[in-house]
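Before the break, one more example. Copy the sequence into your notebook; we will annotate it together after we see the structure.
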Amino acid sequence: MSFCSFFGGEVFQNHFEPGVYVCAKCGYELFSSRSKYAHSSPWPAFTETIHADSVAKRPEHNRPGALKVSCGKCGSGLGHEFLNDGPKRGQSRF
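Here is what the structure looks like once it is written out:
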């Protein structure tokens, strides 16, 4: 499953089949369906990445509590990590 199509609606928001979400640009493994959960956001929500280097993060200066996230291999933009906004206390949401 490729991640992420930002325009025209997110086709994987309500998709909960077992599998791996990969970067749409380079195919690098980003998230497992095991870390995916239902969220009110229009994008799929995950609690963790597959590999420690699946994503690169940098501060988002105009959004406190959020980090800008890109593919750890090719740098393609993926969205944000929202700190302490996961399904459990202290978890983040990608």
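Residues 1-8 have pLDDT under 50 and may be disordered. The beta strands are 2-3, 20-23, 29-32, 36-37, 45-46, 55-59, 66-71, 77-82. Try to locate both features in your own notes.
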